[in-house]
Amino acid sequence: MHLHTCGVKPAFLTTTDGRADIDTYGLAGNVRFIYPLGRFEPYLGGGIGFYRTTLEVQQAFLGFLPSEIRKSDSGVGLQLLAGMEYHFGEKGNSVGLQYRKLKLDASFGPEVQGKVNVGGDFIFLTFRRSF
Predict the structure, then answer these.
(1) How far apart are CA 101 and CA 104, in angstroms?
(2) How far from 113 is each of 9, 46, 67, 94, 127, CA to CA, in Å?
(3) Are 130 and 24 in contact (CB under 8 A)?
(4) Nearest-angstrom CA–CA distance, 60 and 29
(5) What is the pTM of this model?
(6) Domain ranges across the chain
(7) CA 104, 44, 124 angle in degrees (round to 5)?
(8) HSE-up of 57 (CA within 13 Å, CB side)?
(9) How confident is the model over 57-109, as pLDDT tens digits?
(10) What span, in angstroms and rounded, lies between the C-alpha atoms of 81 and 70?
(11) Contact in structure between 131 and 91 (CB atoms under 8 Å)
(12) Is the dihedral of CA 90, 91, 96, 102 positive or negative?
């Protein structure tokens, strides 16, 4: 993430790195609406989850005394998903491809102006085996 896009304000006589690290962890549940076509199962779905996001930005006071801004935010995120699975074998094995869009915004306090979009677009290759 480039900081100039989210407005990090450096303190007096402090320089702020032009990049930041953002980590997001969460727990979510989804519902899928499946349309079986023999061994193929296309689906659409969506869900909701609770996420915790942490922002870390490196700073230097007077150019040589390093410090770090570390801010966290928790919130609810929404997911949309679409995909297809192909079932094979007699044990209920399947492979699939899934697209998922996560809508999640975070606020990191006065150092970062406004809400930051920390969601994104994901593509998953899946394998499932039933025992």
Answers:
(1) 10
(2) 8, 30, 20, 45, 41
(3) no
(4) 41
(5) 0.74
(6) 3-128
(7) 65
(8) 25
(9) 777 766 666 777 788 999 999 999 999 999 998 778 999 999 999 999 999 88
(10) 31
(11) yes
(12) positive
